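User: What would this chain look like folded?
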Amino acid sequence: MNTVIQGLPLNSIVNGDCLQVMRTWPEKSINCVVSSPPYWGLRKYIDDDDPAKRHEIGLESTPEEFIAKMVEVFREVKRILRDDGVIYVNLGDSYQNKQKMGMPHRVVLALQADGWIWRDEIVWFKPNPMPSSVTDRTTPSHEFIYMLTKKKRYWYDADAIKEPCVESNASRPRMGQGPNTQYNQKRGEATGIRFGGSKYGDSDDPKHATKSGNEYIDTGTRNNRSVWRIDDHNQLIQWLHENHPDIATEFSDIGKPDVWTVPTRAYSECHFATFPPDLITPCILAGCPQWVCSECGEPRSRIMEKSQYSPDVAANGERFVDESRGDKNRKLSGAEYNKTPKPQTTGWTRCKCNAPFRPGITCDPFMGSGTVAEVAIKNQRDYVGTELSTDYMKFNGERTQAAETGIPVKEARAGQMPLF
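Assistant: Here's the prediction, encoded as structure tokens.
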């Protein structure tokens, strides 16, 4: 449902230049921004005869011009972002004259120099990158997602994206022996995994810049990838469970690591260079509050308390009295005695306004095919965005409608009506 709140066209995507559109929005109205700006020098999205061509970003003649445009765009993003808000910016790199241009690092350093606080660098590892034909470097299999904030203190829900630690090799996914397989985690069987798309090619030749990995044929060999995985943390947890089970439970949950393994996914109705929803979900869950005060806008935060201890009643084995938990008579096993209670969510904070709550707002100034809007809808957040291309407006409109109604785009085109 499209509504307007405080001059902001909620749950809609505005067709136009992101700078011009954002300048009409109220300041400090957005909770979280998740976006993937066009990469520099890789492809064009707007036809040459389109009046909007003059606003297209990514085709600047020099890296410096592109960086200056990014600083200008995100200066406006900073104006509309709440002081406790966060942004996630996905940036990929390109090659020119045999040189890797380092555009992600150049841009984030420029944003930092412009006043943004650079809080995190997340590596998006692609287990199904586009195969490479070059023989003098590794195959690009990662991109960067930068987390930046306006202030040193901001809203962030780490518990929403915590991951359980694995306890043994059996519970960990295993890579297959072949170049294009991975093991089914439950059955231990090798299953095929398709090479996905990428926003850039592996050749310096511009004609390869938009080729999808799915267009390649697996030749049985592959170049070494740019991300090398060493599961030191998993090995430590496994060793603790095998040798010190009494303390291993303390490590049952960890904060989400800064390397995210997410396969690339093509959106069949649009170009292949789209955000995978699984890449966007943790950004929105951690960076955009599900509920904020409808009057003052303050986000609700988790109230965390350690769970009440519940000893079991097993009779075998040596047992200890645990006076620290207020029970001087109940005897506990050694493992129970040393087990640390896990923090649990017992409630959510609320401000003093006593007003109703509304969903937090996620924004994407480069909405493209609409992945950020789709993920926001599925996770009960509001969204707002802009998109320069009129062609993509059709795609993201259908995609958000599918997320709201539950009817896939193809079925909606065929005329299926909502069930409810």
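Confidence is low (pLDDT under 50) at residues 166-221, 309-318. If you want, I can go into more detail on any region.
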